[in-house]
């Protein structure tokens, strides 16, 4: 599709195809100037001249911003350009597998999952500090390299994709499984949206189960905004309890009570990792300062209000049984109530009649007794 | 999904304030503290009467057929948590139902829980609020106990449902007792006075006074005789 007849895009010589996506094709290519093999991501530009110019401008802006991100856990962007209606992005070529393929094989070992999430959180913290929000953190965008290194791909491209897939009604297409509630609602997003998405990825790595599944998109979107997750330790009791808190905080529907900073999440994951490894967490100088640092990236659209608290949308009433307390006897009573219980538990409170009140309430009983006594005294005195 | 029929139960929702905003290590500490508080306070209830549920920022205790017990539990939990645990409590009486997948993943659902959570949300730290339905349940189980709950206002939850809430007043019971005592005395005096009034209007004042004097003299003489007899008996 985007491949040129000459087998060349820009100055890059195409060596083969690595994959295809919704936006274009990814090639293995060679940069003859530096004698380096790169991954060349192509994006088809629209035929509409006006739209194309706008799209191209935005693509270049995003690519330029992403190109500034040099971090061990972010795929490096080397170059970008446009040729004959095809925009391209030359990136670091990675030899590894993506996390999506790894999760398909089942849950990861807890230490591996936490380590990957920590690396991604650190990379996100780095990008967020520079005002760049990924917007599409999902297993498919996380590459796993040999020796356990993780790298985030496609920084800045999510916004292109969203724009590309917007319908006339402004509805966002694409999978919302890894979107934050504010993203699903179409509200402006900031760094906390990436943290929510990473929370989903972490949950799926730990449990091997899809967190927000559904038969169709509206159902998934509903689940993202309304459904509360089960703590990961329920699926895997061997996990440290602290992970429940970490996942719960990353997956808060209301961004105001979520982790405000990816570094903060990374610090907590580091503590979990230390617990998993059975030693104390390393407290490096830089790390300690990162723990307390909270950076808020202003949303791109300053006009709109912050995302609504999910409490404003719905309340999930299901609460799990506490594992610390044995409620078995009461549950049995609830599941198969005795006849007396069926009467007592099966009805709403009754209004209290005056006879019952006289019998059981000390105040009115006192007045009643006083009246009877006074009546008797009156009769005795004057009768 | 295994479910049971809905039942009415009192739900005490203990909410740790600002739990979600705390650091994870802080959250773990607060959670451990809360578990101690719940363990101490639920010890007074029979195991067949209480179900403890985990909430993201606290705990919910479902109390079966014991509304006064639920109230005591909430008050004790707030007292126990006074040192270092920013706890608030909300109590509601409503429908709950067992729900689970039958693989040890049981939980409870129901409006009873949702409203209790909302009520606790409105309560300030160290404060207890109860819903109208719990007040009714309290009146049903122990008439008179509900009068120690004073109205705290009407609150609208994020789902736009209005809740009429009440807060306990430690002096309300004493005040009510005094009020009823005063009412009893006043009613007795009024009844006595009304009896006298009716007699006067029927017999005329002079006759009434004469009759009373006679009756008084007779009663006094009777009393004197009785006393004398008593003294004789004692002497013997």
How would you summarize what this structure contains?
The complex is a heterodimer of chains A (383) and B (236). In chain A, 43% of the residues lie in helices and 13% in strands.
Question: Care to describe what's here?
Answer:
The complex is a heterodimer of chains A (383) and B (236). Chain A is 43% helix and 13% strand. Chain A contains 15 helices and ten strands. In chain A, strands 1-2-3-4-6-5 form a six-stranded antiparallel sheet, covered by helices on one side. Chain A has a three-stranded antiparallel sheet with strand order 7-8-9. In chain B, strands 1, 2, 3, 4, 5, 6, 7, 8 and 9 form a nine-stranded mixed sheet that branches. Chain B is elongated. In chain B, 40% of the residues are buried. The mean pLDDT of chain B is 87. Chains A and B meet through helix 9, helix 10, strand 10, helix 12 and helix 13 of A and strand 2, helix 1, strand 3, strand 4 and strand 5 of B.
How is the topology of this model organized?
The complex is a heterodimer of chains A (383) and B (236).
Chain A (H helix, E strand, L loop, with lengths): L7 E2 L2 E9 L4 E7 L4 E9 L4 H19 L9 E7 L2 E7 L4 E2 H6 L5 H20 L12 E3 L5 E3 L4 H8 L16 H4 L6 H17 L9 H10 L5 H4 L5 H10 L11 H16 L7 H8 L26 E2 L7 H8 L3 H7 L8 H7 L1 H21 L1
Helix pairs in contact in A: 3-6, 3-10, 6-9, 9-10, 10-11, 14-15
Chain B lengths: L1 E2 L3 E10 L7 H19 L7 E6 L2 E6 L3 H14 L6 E14 L6 E3 L1 H12 L5 E4 H10 L7 E8 L5 E7 L3 H32 L1 H31 L1
Parallel strand pairs in B: 5-7
Antiparallel strand pairs in B: 1-5, 2-4, 2-5, 3-4, 5-6, 7-9, 8-9
């Amino acid at each position: 599709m985007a491949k040129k007849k000459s087998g060349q895009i820009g100055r890059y010589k195409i060596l083969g195809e690595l994959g295809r996506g919704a936006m274009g094709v990814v090639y293995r290519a060679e940069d003859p100037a530096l004698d380096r093999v790169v991954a060349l991501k192509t994006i088809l530009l629209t035929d509409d001249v006006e739209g194309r110019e706008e799209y191209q401008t935005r693509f270049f802006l995003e690519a330029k911003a992403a190109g500034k991100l040099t971090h061990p856990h972010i795929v490096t962007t080397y170059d970008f350009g446009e040729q004959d209606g095809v925009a391209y992005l030359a990136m670091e070529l990675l030899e590894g597998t993506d996390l999506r393929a790894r999760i398909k094989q089942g849950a990861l070992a807890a230490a591996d999952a936490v380590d990957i999430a920590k690396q991604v959180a650190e990379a996100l913290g780095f990008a967020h500090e520079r005002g760049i929000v990924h917007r599409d953190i999902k297993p498919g965008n996380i590459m796993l390299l040999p020796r356990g290194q993780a790298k985030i791909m496609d920084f800045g491209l999510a916004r292109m994709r969203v724009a590309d897939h917007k319908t006339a009604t402004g509805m966002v297409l694409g999978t919302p499984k890894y979107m934050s509630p504010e993203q699903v609602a179409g509200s402006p997003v900031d760094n906390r949206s990436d943290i929510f998405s990473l929370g989903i990825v972490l949950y799926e790595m730990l449990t091997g189960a899809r967190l927000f599944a559904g038969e169709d998109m509206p159902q998934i979107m509903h689940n993202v905004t309304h459904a509360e997750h089960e703590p990961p330790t329920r699926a895997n009791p061997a996990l440290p309890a602290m992970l429940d808190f970490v996942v719960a905080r990353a997956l808060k529907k209301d961004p105001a009570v979520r982790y405000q900073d990816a570094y903060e999440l990374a610090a907590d994951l580091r503590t979990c990792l230390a617990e998993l490894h059975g030693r104390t967490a390393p407290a490096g100088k830089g790390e300690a300062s990162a723990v307390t640092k909270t950076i808020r990236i202003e949303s791109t659209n300053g006009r709109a209000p912050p995302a609504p608290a999910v409490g404003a949308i719905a309340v999930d009433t299901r609460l799990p049984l506490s594992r610390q307390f044995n409620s078995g006897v009461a549950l049995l009573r609830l599941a198969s109530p005795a006849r007396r219980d069926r009467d007592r538990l099966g009805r709403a409170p009754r209004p209290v009649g005056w006879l019952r009140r006289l019998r059981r309430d000390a105040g009115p009983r006192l007045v009643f007794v006083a009246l009877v006594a006074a009546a008797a005294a009156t009769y005795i005195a004057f009768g | 999904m295994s479910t049971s029929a809905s039942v009415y139960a009192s739900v005490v929702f203990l909410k740790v304030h600002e739990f979600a905003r705390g650091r994870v290590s802080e959250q773990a500490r607060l959670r451990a503290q809360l578990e101690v508080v719940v363990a101490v306070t639920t010890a007074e209830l029979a195991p067949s009467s209480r179900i403890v549920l985990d909430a993201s920022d606290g705990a919910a205790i479902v109390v079966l057929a014991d509304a006064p017990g639920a109230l005591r539990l909430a008050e004790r939990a707030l007292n126990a948590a006074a040192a270092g645990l920013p706890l608030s409590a909300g109590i509601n009486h409503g429908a709950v139902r067992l729900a689970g997948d039958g693989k040890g993943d049981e939980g409870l659902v129901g409006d009873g829980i949702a409203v209790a959570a909302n009520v606790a949300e409105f309560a300030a730290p160290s404060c207890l609020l109860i819903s109208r339905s719990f007040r009714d349940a309290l009146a049903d189980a122990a008439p008179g106990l509900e009068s120690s709950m004073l109205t705290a206002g009407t609150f609208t939850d994020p789902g736009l449902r209005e809740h009429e809430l009440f807060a306990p007043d430690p002096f309300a019971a004493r005040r009510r007792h005094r009020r009823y005592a005063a009412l009893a005395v006043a009613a007795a005096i009024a009844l006595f006075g009304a009896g006298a009034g009716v007699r006067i209007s029927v017999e005329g004042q002079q006759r009434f006074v004469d009759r009373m004097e006679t009756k008084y003299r007779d009663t006094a003489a009777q009393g004197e005789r009785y006393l004398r007899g008593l003294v004789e008996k004692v002497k013997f």
